[in-house]
Amino acid sequence: MNLHIKNMVCNRCKMVVKAELEKLGFNPISVELGEVSFAQNISADDKKKIAEKLIHFGFELLEDKKTQIAEQIKTIIINLVHYTKEPLKVNLSSYLSEQLRMEYAQLSAIFSEAEHQNIEKYFIAQKVEKAKEMLTYGELTLSEIAYQLNYSSVAHLSAQFKKVTGLTPSAYKNQELDKRKTLDEI
Q1: For residue 37, what are the contacts with CB-CB under 8 A and spacing of at least 6?
Q2: Rg (Cα) of the chain, in Å, rounded?
Q3: Please, are residues 110 and 66 in contact by the beta-carbon 8 Å criterion?
Q4: What pLDDT is attached to residue 186?
Q5: Is residue 78 helix, strand or coil?
Q6: 8 A C-beta contact, residue 70 and residue 115
Q7: Burial of 41 by CB count in 10 Å (0-12 exposed, 13-18 middle, 19+ buried)?
Q8: What is the per-residue pLDDT for 173?
Q9: In the structure, how many helices (H) and strands (E) does the chain have?
Q10: Which of 30, 71, 86, 120 is least surrounded by Cβ atoms within 10 Å, i.e. has the fewest?
């Protein structure tokens, strides 16, 4: 049996969820971003206990199928942008369709309804947030950041960055305040 969990966006999230489930006496087979697998079925009472425990950490059990699909899309995009080193070899729509075994038009409609934004804007927001992280660390040039985030050029990255943040990458890097967002806030 699988449970779908909202706001699992990093490896620390996976560790927290796993630890809390084990404290409750459950032994999940696997804990992935947004999804936990169990060998046995989980009763309604156990689901309620899990939900009550996880809500304290900002997580939420997802029961609705459309919300689960939207969360799976977010998880795939977060993995692509923040944790995958290899550039995407196909376009995002084809990749999502392949991963979720659904037509992109259907995925897009579900995501837009659940998240009140389209998939492309969410993908761009994640890439800009990753660029902000890389700029903050100051270890890479803007050209290297553009390459790592699979942008066609520095100009393309800069244009999207400014559209999302209101600042150029250079202005962002030179500001005193860190205006980064956590992944679940995007």
Answers
A1: 1, 2, 28, 29, 30, 31
A2: 18
A3: yes
A4: 66
A5: helix
A6: yes
A7: exposed
A8: 86
A9: 9, 4
A10: 86
Q: Bridge-partner residues for 5, per DSSP?
A: 61
Q: Each residue of 119-167: pLDDT tens digit?
A: 999 999 999 999 999 998 888 999 999 999 999 999 999 999 999 999 9
Q: Where are the beta strands (DSSP E) in the chain?
A: 2-6, 30-32, 35-37, 60-62
Name the residue ranges covered by the structural domains of the chain. Answer: 2-62, 65-121, 127-185
The Cα–Cα gap between 89 and 81 comes to 13
Give the chain's residues under pLDDT 70: 176-186
CATH level 3 topology of 2-62: Alpha-Beta Plaits (3.30.70)
**Tokens standing for 126?**
């994640």
